[in-house]
Amino acid sequence: MMQEKFENKIAIYPGSFDPITNGHVDIIKRGSRIFDEIIVLVAYNPNKSFLFSVEERCQFIREIFQDCKGIRVDFHDGLLIDYLKHSGASTILRGMRALSDFEYEFQMALINRRQTKNVETVFLMSGFRWFYTSSKLIKEVASLGGSVRGLVPENVHQKLMEKFNIKNNGK
Predict the structure, then answer these.
(1) Which of 11, 74, 106, 169 could make an S-S bridge to 91, C-beta 3.0–4.6 Å?
(2) Which listed residue (24, 94, 139, 157) is catalytic?
(3) Which one from 135, 139, 157, 159 is the annotated catalytic residue?
């Protein structure tokens, strides 16, 4: 039996984006060729500690995609499914780097599917250049004074250098 087609092709790309990496940017750009609109949804959890505030993280993303049609930034502090219900989106977009991501992402897709049958999860494999890039690793390297240039957008790189009081020495 044929299912109904989604009328609008809006995808939610959720994450903490603390900070957004070039791997995230790659997934958003590639996803924008598939979907009419992508809502980059920045997770806000007052019980977790983040390097950057939700406002800073949203601003980074807005700056990166300021000239891109069909990419919107928002934040949410509840269940992703609740956000989907009022957003008009029908798809969750997720990136996967390695086999280690699969188990977690598969569990999340199944629990989201259990919450509502009207949502699909679409996975895009990470570009090979970003296969081992993660926000956690970026923060760790930057905090120790290492170079993360080229792994994050330039606006994020500058803010990481400021946050960790690193002098611009061409790294």
Answers:
(1) 11
(2) 24
(3) 135
Cβ atoms of 57 and 88 within 8 Å: the answer is: no
97 carries an active-site annotation:
yes
Q: Which domains does the chain have, with CATH numbers?
A: 10-131 (3.40.50.620)
Per-residue pLDDT reduced to its tens digit, 48-86: 889 999 999 999 999 999 999 999 999 999 899 999 988
135 is catalytic: yes
Catalytic annotation, pick one of 9, 30, 85, 97: 97
In this structure, what token pair is assigned to residue 104?
A: 């977690």
For residue 31, what are its two tokens? 């996803």
Spell out the SS3 assignment of the chain.
Answer: CCCCCCCCCEEEEEECCCCCCHHHHHHHHHHCCCCCEEEEEEECCCCCCCCCCHHHHHHHHHHHCCCCCCEEEEEECCCHHHHHHHHCCCEEEEEECCHHHHHHHHHHHHHHHHHCCCCEEEEEECCHHHCCCCHHHHHHHHHCCCCCECCECHHHHHHHHHHCCCCCCCC
